[in-house]
Amino acid sequence: MAKIAYGPIGMVGAEHVTWGRGLAGAFATLMLWYIGKATYNIFLHPLRKVPGPFVAKFTSKWLEYQGFTGHKTATLHNMHQKFGPVVRVAPDELLFSDPALIKKIYGFKASYLKTSFYTGFDDYGEPVLFTLRDRSLHRDRKKLMAHAFSESTILQGEHLVAEQIEKFLSKIEDQQGTAMDVYMWFRCLTLDIVSSLFMGASFETLDKRDHEYMDSVDSYFVLAGLKWQIPWLIPLTSWIPWARWQHFLGAQTKIYNLGRSSFKDYLERHGRNSGRQDALTKIIHGDKVLPPLSDEQIALEIGSILVAGTDTTATVLTYLCWELAKMPTLQVQLRDELKQAILGYQDKHVPKYSDLKFLPLLEGIVLEGLRLHGPAVGSIPRVVPIGGDMLGEYFVPAGTTVGIQAYTTHHDPTIFPDPDTFKPERWANGGTREMKDASLPWSKGSRMCPGLHLATLELKAVLAALSLGWELSLGPNMKDDTMDMIDNWVLMPKGNFCDIVFKPLAV
Ligand code: HEM
């Protein structure tokens, strides 16, 4: 009996032992592989001589972790201070700070492609202008879309931009004398402008003060980072019935669905051949030679434009208001410049862009805002092409990820003396050749931001309208660290708000 009773249990025990041994063997093999790889990365790797934090020499986890702290850009900037102009930030990733390399890595003729990081932004496996990595596919997509972003198309919609800014001014009027969170209001404003221009109708977020899109976009960049850096996490956890997690996971889908519904509404309202000169009709009709984009591709592009074109501009506007609020003398100087340039200005209206475009102080303020508070000042990753390349004093093998942080070139004291200080006057006469070469707020080359004409118009028009009608000061809740930089790919203020008090100017 005893034998019969113990037989099967003994067999199961033997299986356990076998399983246990198997697992231990697999673990040991994994460890050996890991130690072998780490040893190779530290002692034999072609990049072994490049300085950098020790942990980054053998694992990319250190860099990935920085991405989740919200301080990646600042930490990597400090690494440059410690290790010099080239830093090995992961076994196969280098960061450079020499502006002379900007052209080589990002310039029009550069053959450095975007890394696989960008696929994290694709939700339906269908890439968009921002995420296309293949050079010729990107060139064709750009041809189909470039005219929608051109300065002349944007200027045809200038009245739509002004309409939204005037609505924003009326909100200031309602709240004059009390603290107003401009970060939230600028997000509403830029969303209403982009939807007016690209979707044929404003989302009217300024009236509703909220939009389902708003919190989705907060999660959008974090989600893209997670999808790329920990690809197994999302499939493994997508079943968890925790509402906040589900909400977070659905952020990209929500934005792309918004793109779809906006496009559907547009077609119902205007059709495909309305003759409208707006950006969306231009995208629908595409180029003379290439076949037009499919409806699905257009809808996805709209979702992507919503993200690319709202928080970016809103962040710079927020930081510019903050800088102005701290500098009453600069406000007076700007107001004087505007009053001299715009004869017959009507109170509470938005000046015409043609009156603003070339005003030197306004230009200096915008450029200084983009230098110190550009929303995408972290490293923009690219892959070294086949054959490898000499970058500075190092030969860098093909496939290595390289990048330059605008934050670091923008803080180079040899180019921008007293780099932490907001000094619009440093841009007098357009700034020096070195300043222009080191400026990277829009990136450079074929992947440069196509939204810069719209963004510049928005920045100048809003600043001008505010300066002409209002005196700005900081709200009582603003602390020293409220506006510290948190970066989730796109920069945001640590406090997640920026309170400004607007006092009407005596007419
Ligand atoms: C102050 C505002 C803005 C700044 C500083 C900014 C900055 C940038 C930067 C640095 C890139 C390159 C990113 C990379 O290569 O990874 C970029 C790309 C892009 N931006 Fe902007 N952006 C702004 C506003 C806008 C606006 C208003 C729009 C659209 C209405 C827009 C649409 C795009 C698109 C579609 C791309 C992808 C271009 C491509 O890969 O070919 N951006 N932007």
UniProtKB/TrEMBL annotation:
GO molecular function, one term: monooxygenase activity
Cofactors: heme
InterPro entries for this protein: Cyt_P450, Cyt_P450_CS, Cyt_P450_E_grp-I, Cyt_P450_sf, Cytochrome_P450_monoxygenase
Amino-acid positions noted as binding heme in the UniProt annotation, renumbered to this chain: C449
Keyword Coiled coil included in the entry's annotation: no
Keyword Cell inner membrane among UniProt keywords: no
Domain of life: Eukaryota
UniProt keyword list: Heme, Iron, Metal-binding, Monooxygenase, Oxidoreductase
Entry similarity comment: Belongs to the cytochrome P450 family.
Protein name from the UniProt record: Cytochrome P450
Organism: Exophiala bonariae
